[in-house]
Each structure stands twice: as structure tokens, then as C-alpha cells.
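To: structure subgroup
Subject: Chain for Friday's discussion

All,

I'm putting the inputs and outputs inline so they're searchable in the archive.
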Amino acid sequence: MTQTLLQLDLDPLGPYFGANVRGIALARATDAELAAVRAALVERKVLFFTGQDLDPDTQVELGRRLGELTASHPVIGGVDDDHPEIYALDSADDGFADVWHTDVTFMPRPPLGSILRAVVLPPSGGDTNWADSQAAYDSLAEPVRRLADQLTAVHDGNREFGYYLTQRRGGKGSVWDGEVVTRLDPVEHPVVRVHPETGRKGIFVNPGFTSHIVGVSEAESRGILDLLYAHLTRPEHIVRHRWHLGDVAMWDNRSTAHYANRDYGAAHRVMHRITLRGDRPSGPATKV
């Protein structure tokens, strides 16, 4: 028998992408509510919850109820010894995310999704933007979609985290997929990712971690990536969230990219993120 999902009270932010979820206290959510949230996350790709009272313990517990948690980050340790799953993005410690990216695509199995809560906010600024990679793919011209379907890209974490791993962690990072991260070998992923739950295609390259396209010249790679980045971040593919204390955002890492505005000067901003374990990305040309 097919189980009927609870109907959430959603305030959509666009026709297909993003929604505010009303009437759920995440720290005390029922199994039925979280099952509905999980389904809405796949459909709407990024969800926002206001007025939440999560702390480190309840944020981790929420994540465990939604899926299998990863370490905080392959390279950067947890916020404290009791919460190795929480990645603290602290502006006082260069914790910025002001480049378009999809979380941790430089690993063979990037996270399925992320759960982010506001801890310290500047008086103004610090909004976060999300881009819908599936809508972006769908709105590409058909010949460009055909080209992108055939391509593979290299993702490299060394540009952002190589120095941190070697100099600040002594070459010993976190345990990721059962192994201690001691180096960041570039990985290959399809330029177009097929979502494992819906079968929809989405653009799966990002300026933060994608270094180049495989099998083409440097100039061709740069041109293709610039085209895809510009298209991915067109205004009609984006939702923007203005943070307030008590806000929580969840997003599907398999169908989105995001960018945190760094427009608050010397003011302090701290966000706590956890991530759910994902699978190896598959593309249209992936052989089963």
C-alpha cells in the first residue's frame, strides 16, 4: 500500500523552485512531517523554515532523522569535539561562501543535501542565493543541452582547501566515506547530473570547484563553462533569502548551487551547516 504523505503548508517562492514551510517546529517534528519535508525538498529544491529553536544537538538530530550525516567537511573539522558533523562558517575565520558553488563536489560522493541555520547575523546583508540547476538545464537551447549531456568536468578542492589541509591540519582531514582525507585528488563528474530520485537533468558544474572540461582545449573549456555559469545564475533561476535568527534552510545539493553575499563589512556572521551523505553523480551518458 502506498503511504499518503502529509500535506505541508508551503509558500512557494517561484513556480517550481523554493518555498517557505509554515507550521513545523523542526526540533519536535513528527516522522510524518519530516517525510513530507524530505519529499518537498526534492520537488522544491530549497526550503526555508522561520522561528526555529535548533541548537547544535537538535540540528544534528534533525539531520540524522533525514538521512546519514557526513563529517562537517572533508578538510575542516567540526565546530567542537561534541559536534564533528557541524561545519561553522564564521566570517571571523574566513568562513565565507562568496562564490557560486555546490557543496563538496570535489569529492567522489558529494553530499545529498545541506541544512544551514543562522547563529550570528550582521545588522544587514549576508543574504544567500540559490540557483535551480534543473530549470537552468531545461531552458538551455536544445543543441547546447545535447553538447552538455556528453561532457565530463574535473572538480578540484585544492584551490580552496589544499593549503588548509596541508598547513592547518597537517595533511590529515576528516573521515569521509570511511577514509581519512589526506589529499584532495581531482575528481571527474558529468557536466549534466541526472537526479537519482526524479530522473531530471541539471547543470552540475560550478565556479567554486570545477577546474575544466575533459577532452577539449583550455579555451573551449573556458568558453563552455562561462556559458553554463552565466546561464545557471540568470535571475529567473535564483531565489534569495534574507536571514533572521531562527531561520533554517535546507537544500538539495543534487539540483542547486548557492552563493552567500559578502556585503556586511567587518560585521560578524556565523552559520552552522550539516550535510547528508550522497551518492556518486550520474549523467546522461553514464554506463550502468
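Points worth raising on Friday:
The chain has a mean pLDDT of 96.
Residues 9-276 form a domain with the Double-stranded beta-helix fold (CATH 3.60.130.10).

D.
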